[in-house]
Design brief:
It is a single chain. It is built from 4 helices and 7 strands, in the order ααβββαββαββ. It has a single domain, classed as Alpha-Beta Plaits, CATH 3.30.70. It is globular and about 35 Å long.
Length: 139
């Protein structure tokens, strides 16, 4: 027990140091200088995502069918400029940051994504717009 606690502390402490060569993380590099926010636990997600889709877990993994439906919707929609996935848990928990071509696209996608969420998902689901609209299921 003590050994695993010490190893965990050593691992976490090692992950908190800044790179010596001034390199930045892959997520920071892809953010193109946009401000970042801290998301559970410690994953940097751009603060200015036009649309944010979150997949949580009740200790049994995310709702994979909802995740697949959202992924397909984002892949097929011409209003999506880009979508970047930020994993943050051990059971598939993740947040998708979606950049859209227009605010109207964000609103339309918000409605479409919220309709894909089942009434009783396997884990908590949420979709949020940059303008502050939020829909969640399973929380």
């Amino acid at each position: 027990m003590k050994l695993s606690l010490l190893l965990s502390i050593a691992f976490l402490a090692g992950g908190c140091t800044a790179p010596e060569d001034g390199a930045i993380s892959q997520n920071q590099a892809q953010s193109k200088g946009r401000p970042m926010v801290n998301h559970p636990p410690g994953t940097d997600i751009p603060a200015d995502c036009a649309l944010r889709v979150e997949f949580g877990s009740y200790a049994m993994g995310i709702d994979r069918s909802a995740s697949a439906a959202v992924a397909q919707l984002l892949a097929d929609d011409p209003g999506v400029a880009s979508a970047q996935t930020f994993p943050w848990g051990r059971e598939g928990e993740k947040t998708i940051c979606v950049e859209v071509r227009s605010e109207a696209d964000a609103e339309r996608l918000f409605e479409a994504i919220s309709r894909t969420f089942p009434a009783e998902p396997r884990g908590p689901l949420a979709v949020t717009t940059q303008s502050g609209r939020r829909f969640s299921a399973g929380r």
